[in-house]
Amino acid sequence: MGELADRLASMRVSVTMPDQGMSAELLGSSQVTARIQEGLYTRSRDADLEWRLTTLAGLLWVARTREYRRIFADVTGQASAGAARPISPRDIAFAQERDEIVAAGSSADGRVALQTTGMLQWRATVEPGTLRQLDEAEFLAGVGQAAGALIRDHADAVAALKNKHYDGWPD
């Protein structure tokens, strides 16, 4: 691997919610570990956890994007302001479809699910009764599974979209 690929593979990004209730860490491209403030899990309701996970997912993706751009600029010497500006009808179609990608992931038991549209709008669902059925460690493991699956689903969709618009990218 080249330096950029190596640095991205070892990228580590951490975020904490403003109220300190939950935090998450992304290692590499899709390994997510979530943590919850001591005692908060047992005091929560499923809907509370959905709200927290929705918020945390957005925060983590923003932090990941910033770190990706920082690493890119550091390695290449080129500032990265995000995706390249569309300059052709093909680029415009690609960008529009990319922003509409719906990606999803769920825990192995299906109790925790995450969904995003364009990696901008986030939604978490926690099956009713999850707090009674899973202990904190099992719940947090499910969060990591769901997040990793969502990230891989999104990456697969972007790759398929590139293939569609750019004739077999990458060749």
Features:
50% helix, single chain, 171 residues, globular, 3-stranded antiparallel sheet, Ybab, Chain: A, 6 helices, alpha+beta, 6 strands
Task: Write up what this structure looks like.
With 171 residues, the protein is an alpha+beta fold. The protein has one domain: Nucleoid-associated protein YbaB-like domain (Ybab, Chain: A, 2-Layer Sandwich). The chain is 50% helix and 20% strand. The protein has six helices and six strands; from the N terminus they run H-E-E-E-H-H-H-E-E-E-H-H. It has helices at residues 3-9, 40-43, 46-76, 89-98, 130-133, 136-165; strands at residues 12-16, 22-27, 31-36, 102-106, 112-117, 121-126. The strands form two sheets. The chain has a three-stranded antiparallel sheet. It has a three-stranded antiparallel sheet with strand order 4-5-6. Helix 4 runs antiparallel to helix 6 (136-165). The chain is globular and about 50 Å long. The two termini are 17 Å apart.
